[in-house]
Design goal:
Layout: H1 28-32, H2 41-49, H3 60-87, H4 95-108
Length: 109
């Protein structure tokens, strides 16, 4: 098995609330299995609270649904960016690959 440290975003990232939100991955198989990775409800609540006024609250079912939506969106973005990297002849996904697929991805979701 392969132990990986929790994933962190850079300090200047607008998604700093996600920092440390992923639990340790215990094997390389788990790292490759999208069904084992998700967003914590608390993380989703913090993301939404940045754009909601103080009175607005989300219920538990809504946060579960939003977490699943974000999971699907993130996995699809990763798959499309990887495919774009292959088409560009690269074996590594770079930010420009994500930039190329982002307009259509946003239209599809």
């Amino acid at each position: 098995t392969l132990n990986l440290e929790p994933l962190h975003t850079e300090p200047h990232s607008p998604f700093g609330v996600m920092e440390g939100s992923l639990d340790r991955l215990v094997s390389s198989e788990a790292a490759l299995d999208p069904s084992t990775v998700t967003f914590k409800q608390e993380t989703v609540q913090k993301l939404f609270s940045r754009h909601w006024d103080a009175k607005t609250k989300g219920n538990s079912d809504g946060m579960k649904l939003a977490a699943e939506y974000l999971r699907c969106f993130t996995i699809e973005a990763a798959h499309r960016a990887a495919e774009q990297a292959k088409m560009d002849g690269s074996d590594q996904v770079e930010p420009e690959h994500l930039e190329k697929i982002l307009p259509q991805l946003l239209l599809d979701f």
